[in-house]
Predict the 3D structure of the following.
Amino acid sequence: MNSRYYIMNSSIKKSFFSFIILVLLIAIFEGTLTLGGFLYSNFHYGLNNPQIDKDAFRILFLGESTTQGHTLEMKNAYPAQVENILQLHYPNKKIKSYNKGINAIETTAILRNLNRNVANYRPHLVILMAGRNDNFIEDNRQSDLKIILSKSKIYRLIISIKDIPKVVISDIRKDDGDFRYVHQPYHYKPVNLVSEGISNFNNIIDIVHTYGSKIWLTGYFQPDARENVNPLLEQIASENNITYIDDYPKVDFKINSSLFMEDGWHPNKEGHRIIAEKIAETIINKKIVDNLKT
């Protein structure tokens, strides 16, 4: 009896210590991911205030990989192209764009870094294209456990890995100055914004306004996001009485594949040009540069 009790007690202790070690390892991994994200964010944004041209009309672009330019040279991403178009239209004024798009970022992270970005760049106008990555909670019927898990970096990492499209990467080439992955085309799953994402947008808009800056939302150029994300972005803009831009020409991946990279999602240089022209056209039509007082 004592022998069985000893064996059982020993087994319970081993299980308990194994559980404690597992919890500690998970906590360490979670902390490492959190710290890594924080360090990357600070590295990307810079720890010191940037040198801004106080005489220029300053536009701050926020968003994820589409705004960042995803493998494009910075000069070919739509924020830089907007600057070039406006500078040609306003040869006697200074135009400056600041591209703070970050690959895979969602609205929670954009909101977290917002005060620093707006304080650093003091933009006259903020252009925000986001929402496509807010896919960790798909609707309000999710369980409380799922909502809690969605905050975990480990959980998000697992979901991201699970959802990686199965593609064959065959080569990396340089084409017209753009580095691209060459593989079989794929399409991202359609996703929907949720209440938390909508709340983030409302908070972002309110914070930008407290700095005396304008903020506009721009929809996505990609067909999937036009159907699943853009309507909500338009609704958010309407409810906040701010400008919304998304009247791009309609495209189809099969017909207009020349406007997208090989991944079938991200616009290439020509696709970014179409986005840039529509944004610049709206800025010109609303005459906000003409009314600038430096």
User: Anything to note?
Assistant: The radius of gyration is 23 Å. The chain has two domains: 1-48, 55-286. Residues 1-48 form one domain. The mean pLDDT is 78.
